[in-house]
Amino acid sequence: MPMSPEEFYAYVMRAADADGRLPLSRMTAWDVFPFEQTGLRVRPLDPPELPEPARFGEDGQDCSACAAGQEPVWSDGNWRLSVLEPTGIPLALMLEPRVHCDLPDLPDDLAAEMGLLITRICRVIESLPHIARAHVSRWGDGGAHLHIFFFARPAGFAQLRGTCLAIWDDLLPEIPADQRDRDVAAIGRALAESHGGSC
Q1: What pLDDT shows up at residue 69?
Q2: Cα(79)–Cα(98) distance, rounded to whole angstroms?
Q3: What is the rounded CA–CA span in Å between residue 161 and residue 115?
Q4: How many CB atoms lie within 10 A of CB 32?
Q5: What is the pTM of this model?
Q6: Residue ranges of the alpha helices (H) in 128-176?
């Protein structure tokens, strides 16, 4: 039988020290981890809060994604791709459906199209000569409107590989707008050619 939130919390706290802190994770020894282990501490885990606080745009109320006024990089009748800024990596983008829904209630036809779009967006990002990889993620804890993130890892920087890229993005100095805008224009044009829609 699965653990209740309270049982899960008690289980985790048995592994914590007297101050309620867990040991550093294996991840902190990875060569891509952006911080040195010396002096690094894990925050104590807060007890469960139930019911959880509502996300932004829950049930379509006051949803900033539905009221989006930002000019997209690319869009069609079902989707829009926008730039996230500022960023320390060459490019960060966000794909959202035009209809208000989250991943579990995304209609099957849009889910199929989303898979194709994610693949095409990654191809376009990775076709840029200074980009090594396009990382794709969906967390969904902040907003109730589905949003898929794309992070472009710059070529030659193996230290920025993997799941820590989003942390590195926060640490690196902001990319110049003119460089980002050239990449954005190239991505918009390529998507319009391969998938239709407009940039």
Answers
A1: 64
A2: 5
A3: 23
A4: 16
A5: 0.90
A6: 165-171
